[in-house]
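Hi team, as promised in this morning's meeting, here are the two structures we talked about. I've kept the exact order from the run log so nobody has to guess. The first one is mostly here for context; it's the second one we should focus on when we meet again. Sequence first, then the predicted structure tokens.
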Amino acid sequence: MSSTTTTTPAAAPAGPPAPAPAKATVADEGRIGLRANLRHIGALARRNMLQIKKDPESMFDVLLMPVIFILLFVYVFGGSVGASLGGNRQEYVNYLVPGLMAMMGLNIAMAVGTGVNDDFRKGVMDRFRTMPIARSSVLIAKIVVELGRLMVAMFILLVMGFVVGMELHGSVFGLLAAVALSAVFGAAIMWIFILLGLSMKTAQAVQGTAMLVLMPLQFGSSIFVPTQTMPGWLQAFTDYNPLSNLADAARALMQGGPVGDSVWWTLAWAAGITLVMAPLAVAKFRKKA
């Protein structure tokens, strides 16, 4: 008669439990150094520029918008507004072009908001959020590329201005300072539209809301016409409108007039908008579902 031997498995040695497999985590923004952050911004900006290269039609607004605005306003309103300025159509060109420089940044900024919204809809931003990069680098790279588009629009605007008779009474340095001031303010405004693009569900909603904001700001300012003939309540609005400050500062820099406080007010507006909107946009980017 055979006997069956039962083997009892040895007990595991006592001790702390084995740690669970660590989940892959995305590097925190605070752990990424400045050099790495700049490298990430450069790589993402290059990716955005390659997207433009694959879709040249995305540059149509930059290439055509300055031409259309110059021809439309100069030859429709130039005669009457120029006369009110004490001159002719050429006088209005000198008045209009610096104002349009202020407006270019707003229109480019609106495109940033719709682009960010579209990237989220396509899942591009979700892929970026799984990568070990600073969250702000994704948004800053967007702004860097859009500033490049803005410079192209500014160049075409100035060329068209000189073609239709604009005269530069100031210095070349003043012209470059006006372009730089417009770019600084445009970059600040882009943070507002990035936050709008992250908050709205569709690109159409972003564009519609942006137009509701842009129309009063643009036409309730000194961009197109002097504000002296406006009603008193509207003049009070234009006095606090940052676009009026930017347009007046650009005119003074380009035409050699007294700058006054317009430059400082424009820089103050740009700094305040960036300090408030940039952190809100980055926080929204992290939490957006």
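And here is the second protein, the one for discussion:
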Amino acid sequence: MLALVAGALYGLGVSSAWIGRLIPASEGFLADNPSAARALSAAVIAIVIAINWKLLHLLKRNYQIVAVWMELFALLMVFFHSFDLSFAFIAKKIGFLITQGVTTTLFISAISIAIATAIALAGAIAKLSRNGVIYGLATFYTSLFRGLPLLMQIYIIYLGLPQVGYVIGAIPAGILALSLCYGAYMTEIFRAGIESISRGQTEGATALGLSPSQTMGLVILPQAMRVIIPPTGNQFIAMLKDSSLVSVVGVWEIMYLARTQGQTEFRHIEMLITASMIYWILSISLEFLQARIEERFGRFNVR
């Protein structure tokens, strides 16, 4: 395995420049023997990875997770540091990026998530209906909005609706496009979750005298949520990131501000990395919330 890792690193063209920085006296040898220097660099890195692997296995599982996160985050920061970033510029712009960009992004995402959830529930019930008209409407909707790229949907709503006499603002257009697009994807998630509950549950609720709406709200959905929540949480995280697409119509969300603020001093990479880190932090927050909700419904299911 050690030889395979070293060979893979060598094949990827790993640089030996870091050896020269650590041992200045070796720079002449490294320059005169590039192939040997690359092989040495690959071998040393492979050995370090192997030692680190062994040391991590001496820790308990929780400490292993923390250690892996810390190591990978440190490597990520080293990678970003190699870009020669201007941290003073980032510090000057990050306040506005958070107060304006994050606020707008969360506002758009929160409303879109709520509307998409309502659309998905209605769409799932419609796809389970025996009424041909309702089923046809639901299937056409999901096929259309899952088949068109989200960026195209934003353009069609923002630029197309005024052609028929309805002028819509940039933020409402973005919210509508996100809601319709992710509502279509989540419709299938809700449908699958509802169908995962055995028919006996519905028959038992009917025998107890519950109406179809009571059966759905009190019996089927609470049990189906354990199946629905994990993929739905993934859709929420994807929606949060895809909200960056509404920047194409001039909405001042994170990505729009990252581009415009970076143009002032030609510091595009600083702003893009900062925006990426903000999106990552927001995604981690959603992952944490999703885990808590899954734990809650999982506990109810055990009961």
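Starting points for discussion:
The mean pLDDT is 88.
The chain has two domains: 1-82, 87-297.
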